[in-house]
Amino acid sequence: MSRENFGSKIGAILAAAGSAVGLGNVWRFPIETGENGGAAFIIVYVACIIVLGLPIMISEFLIGRYAHTNTAGAFRIASNGSPWKWVGRLGVFTGWFILCYYIVVGAWTLHYAFLSATNAFYDVDAKQYVDIFNGFVQNPWIPTVWLVCFVVFIHFVITRGVQSGIERSAKVMMPALFVITLALTVCSVSLPGASRGIEFLLKPDWSKVDSNVVLQAMGQAFYSLSLAMGCLCTYASYFDHRTPLAKSAVNVAMIDTGIAIMAGFIIFPSVFNIGMTPDDIGIGASLTFISLPNVFQQAFGNGSILAVIVSTMFYSLLFVAALTSAISLHEVATAYVSEEFAWSRKKAATLVTSTIMVLGILCSLSFGPLCSVTLFGRNIFELFDDFSGMVLLPIGGMLISIFAGWVLNRKLYHDELSNYGTLRVRYYRLLTFSLRYVAPVAIGMVFLDQLGVFDFLK
Ligand code: TRP
Fold it and tell me: Based on CB atoms within 10 Å of each CB, which residue in 125, 298, 303, 399 is the most buried?
């Protein structure tokens, strides 16, 4: 069976950037930056990307492109069938797991885009936003309907294949995402009082940067770049032999970081404009679905056309960002099932779609009818989120860096990196050093930190 590749370099980069740019860029990065030292945090974050993120991204690219197959197969081939092949399988499993809760939030963005477009936030007072959100997520039907829509969308793109599905959708959605981000940034920074928001986001304050903040920046860098589970490895298996791996990785990281910083320019000027402080707005879901609808409504004129447009654009931005990331996660599992079990792409995608639909609905219902189903004090959604983020991803990341640094054949590594002698390889030693020593130790610390071990020791 012949295997498709991405049709162009730009298509390949946009697809990978689509995977990286996701909810994490909007609902975590800006607020983490503002609270942890502004420009100082950004510098630490960029350093994490350069020192840890890029070497791992390049390694994932290289393994995927070398093997030209799904992540599980790629690690089997690259490890000559040794037990390291399990790293690939772990990645596939992790992606499948992340997808189950990620689609729940993807579905919420659709609902909020719809509410914004129909001017449903007109004259809602600040406290009511909590009720609107809780009423929505606790409802057994409405989130489920949006979830089904979201998943059908993903399924449609995936079944169209690599070039006419993933690549073509990335070529439409990523430019749309840039345009929306830019338009929202312009609207927000031209508000009166915007400069205080910009100052909050950017003013460097090194006194806030402690070891905790560094660990937070590392964790965010990994999540934001979609590393540690073979997402980018799968996409790279569709790169052709001329795609420059290191350069593509740098491009993807720059796009991802650029969008994350711009998300800060959208959020904080509006927040300060209405006299709120960053402490009032929360992080994650409460930031996105409770504070921001209120912020936009007040900053751009309650019920005005501008408020409707800004709010609708913002949730469309989140929707597109979540969709392209979810597509990349789905592709990891679909490519795995289809190639390892020799199923047709359609049949494989249908299996993946059905499982995430069922598990996703369970996650979604865990805010309503299933809220009493808990384990370790977490509902089903939180279990999927925390188990994948705090356990599976760090383990995967650590194993991938150790594999790429210590186990993978050095000649193969160098050959792939240089596109078999046609490109000059720079910083090769630094790359290896990071993969061998820095990344495993750093990820190990993030892991222990997330499990609360350091707090415990204090
Ligand atoms: N990077 C995406 C975000 O910022 C989420 C994501 C997609 C992801 N694929 C991933 C995270 C793989 C970790 C691993 O929201």
Answer: 399
**Of the candidates 90, 48, 57, which has an alpha carbon nearest to the alpha carbon of residue 392?**
90
- For 378, list phi and psi in degrees, rounded to 5: -120, 145
SS3 122: coil
Q: Is 299 helix (H, G, I), strand (E, B) or coil?
A: helix
- Record the tokens describing residue 414, joined without a space: 């160098």
**The predicted structure's pLDDT at residue 456:** 79
Strand partners, 232: none
Q: For the whole model, what pTM was predicted? A: 0.96
Which pair of tokens denotes residue 61?
Answer: 């690219």
DSSP code, position 378: B
Angstrom distance (rounded) from CA 294 to CA 299: 8
Residue length of the chain: 458
Q: Is the CB of 181 under 6 A from ligand 1?
A: no
d(CA 314, CA 404): 39
**172 token code pair:** 């439409």
Q: Helix 245-273 and helix 54-67: axis angle, to 10°?
A: 130
Ligand 1 atom 3: residue of nearest CA: 22
Question: Ligand 1, atom 8: nearest CA belongs to which residue?
Answer: 226
Q: 101 C-alpha vs ligand 1 centroid, how far in Å?
A: 12
Dihedral angle at the C-alpha atoms of 43, 46, 52, 56, nearest 10 degrees? 180
Cα–Cα dist 321/132, whole Å: 23
Count other Cβ atoms within 10 Å, centred on residue 1: 7
Q: Does the pLDDT value for residue 311 go beyond 60?
A: yes
Decide whether any atom of ligand 1 lies within 6 Å of the 324 Cβ. no
The per-residue pLDDT for 188 is 97
Q: What is the pLDDT of residue 1?
A: 52
